[in-house]
Amino acid sequence: MRVLGLAIGFVTVIAAHAAAADARxxxxxxxxxxxxxxxQLCDYTAMTHIRADERHFRPDRAxxxxxxxxxxxxxxxxxxxxxxxxxxxxxxxxxxxxxxxxHLKVESFNYKIGGEIPQSKWASYGxxx
Length: 129
Prior knowledge:
Blueprint: H1 2-29, H2 34-53, E1 59-63, E2 71-73, E3 76-86, E4 89-99, E5 106-116, H3 119-125
Antiparallel strand pairs: 1-3, 2-3, 3-4, 4-5
């Protein structure tokens, strides 16, 4: 019973930490122009989805326009040349992300992960260690 109590306490602390992080992220979004807000929101969403769906990746950075400029359509971004960093390596990604009009919440999101980007190409894509 004590182990169950500790487990529940641990999950509660993790959930509270995640909620606080989300609140801080939302406050930081409000400081950006709406077009910048949309891209940051979608990059953040890409990292959270990849982290949750692909347990072997631990993304800490995402760049929607690493290899190609993104396409903006109203409240949607189509990123066909993006990248994310996980454990010191960069990987290709693409996504389509649609947010509500204030660009504070994502309405729909889908993504695809590509291959690892060779370190020799990082500088040409504006990626860093």
